[in-house]
Design goal:
Layout lengths: L2 H18 L5 H7 L16 H7 L7 H5 L7 H6 L1 H14 L35
Helix pairs in contact: 1-6
Amino acid sequence: MDERAEDWTLRYREVTQCRIGHCFTGEYYSRFVPLEKVDCPCGEAFQTREHLLRDCPQYEEHRHILQSVSRDNSLPAILGTRDSITALAKFLKESGAFTKNGMPRHHIELPTFNDEPDPAESDGESDDGG
């Protein structure tokens, strides 16, 4: 898969998870992973999608991305229009919101066939005694 397709697939997954609430938040954990903490690292007692998108100080420097499509960061506007979905994808990529550690994901180069070393030359004898 080329890098653009891989990036698009990741962004689509992140946006979908955010839109349906199936993401790393206290709101999700309280329903599906009760042993996980539900508070936000910023000190908010209960971490929700709305808190992360609208209020969390951890993502303040990236919030302008969302405000470009919704001045008041209205959740229905952010989660429900074509332009806002594009802005949401950019916000998620740049901010790292809704990741397990709250930090942006870094692209990992996967090895390719061309990166593999050449197999060792064989003299026809096997090492297994056969």
